[in-house]
Structure formats: C-alpha cells, structure tokens
Design brief:
Low-confidence stretches: none
Strand content: under 5%
Number of helices: 18
Radius of gyration: 21 Å
Strand order of the largest sheet: 1-2
Helix content: 55-70%
Shape: globular
C-alpha cells in the first residue's frame, strides 16, 4: 500500500466529521467529492478508459455538488455521484480496505462532546435522518471490526468502544430507520454466516432473546404511548398517506408511467402534514424513484442491484472477513433503510460513503480488460 494513501483516505473521516458537527454541511461535500476525484484520477491503468471520462463529468458538475444545487430530496445528480463513488472505489486494493473502513471511525470520539439528549440532531442544518443514516453506516464499520476474531486485545478494545459509541449515537438520534436497518443488516449477515457453519438456530434464538430483552427494557424505562415500541401513529400514518400519493403519480398520464414526473416536480403534487410539518417526499426511496423516474428508473435500479448481487456471488470467496462482512451489511442496510426514508440521497457525503461500501465486491474482481492484455480487434 502506497504511503500517500493514508492522507488521501483521511478525507473520508474529515467529510463525515464536517457533516455531523453543527457546521454548514456544504463543507463536507468538498473532502467527500475530492476523495472520489482523486480515486478516479489515480485509477489503475486498465480502468482509466472509463474512469477518466467520468472524472470529466464530475468536474463539469462540481458546482452542483459542492453548493448542493440539485433538486431534493432526490435527483439524477444524486444517482450520478453515488455511481461515480462506487466506480472510484473499485480502485481500492485488498490491502487498503481495512484502512478505508476503519479511518471513518475516528469521527466517533470527536463527536462525544456534541452528544445530547434524545432526540439528538448531530447537525440541525443537515437534518436528523441524514445524520442518523451516516451514523448507521459507521455502526456497520465498527460492528464489522469488532467481529474480527484474530486481532490483538487493544484492537478488540478499540473496536468495542467504537461500536458502543456508534450504537449510542444512533439511538440518541431517535432515527428508527437507521437503528432498525443497521442492527438488522448486521444480524442478517451474522445469521447467514452462521448458517453456513451449521449454527443458525442457536444464534437466531439468541438474537431473538436479545431483541425481546431490549424491547422490554425500553418499555420499562420509557413506555410508548401506543403500547408498541417504535410506533408513532401521527408520523407513520402520515408516511402511509403520502406514500399512496407517490404510488399514484406515474398513473396520472403524459407518459409518466414510463419516465415519471421528473425529479424537480414531485413537490408540486404530494404534500402531507406530519407532526406539525409538511412532508414533500415519499419517505421511501423506491416510491420516490418510481414517482420521479417511472419504470425506466426502477429498471436502472434493478440493473445496479443485479450487478451487485452477481458480483457478490463471484467475489465473496476472494474477500478478507472485514470488507466482506461490512460490504454485505452495507448492501442490506441500504436496501432496508430505503424502505423507510431517502436519506442516502440529498447530501454528497452520504452518497460517497454509500457508493464506497457498495463497491467492495467490485474492487476484488478483475477488470473487463486485464492489465497488459490487448483486446481482440479482429
């Protein structure tokens, strides 16, 4: 691993810190997109034919991301930066992945002085759900590190401290989507791995016991007004109602079934009062893409998911335990969290972190044209 990769990879925790501190979140866009740009420019020779033209596209649109000028909460530019981050991270080598996955955890101890009572909003200018989403990703990184069996005692101590801090911070945000999705993703990856070892039912019963105990303790310390932990009637019913509106949008004529109403226009159609405020997005990434981009948008999402799942099938035996577990948990986390909100979009830093983690299986697979081999021009 080249020594200058360390300062380059420090851009990721810097971006996360600037986003989670009570500062202008636009500051976080610069180091996040700078990491992506550096990765594209420094791409291996065999990948430059695709990644350098992508660097041109990002440079042309730098103002859009750095000044957060795209329409929100979702836009075509969001998808472009997410995919660009994914492709940029394919140039990260196996020996470098532990550094890339552990360095962002430096954010956690630096945030301790900012931690407040629940509901804690790390950065009010960025929003509670976006902060919770990013902290959920950090919880995956800490959980994957703690899961490592062969490491010195001090490494396990650091990993345990990071996992405890990340879990506490996710809990304090009050983000149900981040908490459920991160813990659910780690549990599913654990159960899948244990099933391959023949220990599925024992571990499943253990996890169910822990979940039941946590729910009982939560009800004892802070009972829910509905009697069901995690259920907020006013919020959840509002989300269901606005979701129904977004489901119907592509059926409203003008070829919207094919390509949606556009990323700039959903706010003109669907509004719903939730907890004293007005919600103008679907609170569900799949519904948002369905309304904004129609069948073509869902087809594009399906193609990306098919690529990732097929890549995992081929790359899983080639990966070290840490990137394998974190990468699988990140994919499950993104898919689960997308059912509850659109928080992985809207801010470049969350798109970059998500793209980097989703790229883990692609980074170990050989490129389409191996280095030193010329394509057949016949």
């Amino acid at each position: 691993m080249r020594p200058w990769f360390m300062p380059l990879d420090l851009l990721l925790p810097l971006a996360g810190l600037l986003f989670l501190l009570p500062l202008n979140p636009l500051l976080s866009s610069l180091p996040a997109s700078a990491w992506v740009m550096a990765q594209l420019v420094l791409a291996p020779q065999e990948r430059r034919w695709a990644l350098w033209p992508l660097a041109l596209v990002l440079l042309l649109m730098a103002r859009t991301w750095w000044l957060n000028e795209m329409p929100h909460p979702a836009s075509a530019q969001d998808g472009l930066l997410l995919v660009a981050s994914l492709l940029a991270a394919t140039g990260v080598g196996q020996r470098r992945w532990p550094q890339v996955l552990r360095l962002p955890l430096l954010v956690l101890p630096l945030l301790v002085t900012q931690l407040g009572p629940k509901p804690w909003i790390p950065n009010p200018l960025a929003g509670p759900n976006q902060g919770g989403y990013l902290l959920g990703l950090l919880l995956l990184l800490a959980g994957g590190w703690l899961w490592q069996r062969r490491q010195p005692w001090w490494g396990r101590l650091l990993a345990g401290g990071a996992a405890a801090l990340a879990l506490l911070m996710v809990w304090q945000t009050g983000s149900r989507a981040a908490l459920i999705s991160s813990l659910g993703a780690l549990a599913l990856v654990l159960l899948r791995e244990r099933a391959a070892q023949g220990h599925l039912w024992r571990d499943l019963l253990g996890l169910l016991g822990l979940a039941a105990g946590a729910v009982a303790l939560k009800q004892l310390l802070r009972p829910s007004s509905t009697g069901l932990p995690g259920l907020h009637l006013s919020s959840d019913l509002g989300r269901l109602e606005i979701g129904q509106c977004y489901i119907q949008l592509p059926f409203s004529g003008s070829n919207r079934l094919l390509y949606g109403v556009g990323f700039e226009r959903p706010k003109d159609f669907c509004h719903q009062l939730i907890n004293g405020g007005v919600a103008d997005h679907a609170h569900n990434l799949y519904l948002q893409l369905w309304a904004d981009s129609g069948l073509l948008g869902l087809l594009g999402l399906g193609l990306l998911l098919a690529l990732l799942l097929n890549s995992w099938r081929r790359a899983e035996p080639l990966l070290e335990p840490l990137p394998r577990r974190v990468g699988q948990a990140a994919l499950v986390y993104s898919l689960l969290q997308a059912c509850f909100d659109v928080s992985l979009l809207h801010w470049p830093v969350t798109q970059v972190f998500t793209g980097v983690l989703l790229a883990i299986p692609l980074a170990v697979l050989p490129p389409a044209i191996p280095s030193g081999q010329q394509p057949n021009r016949g």
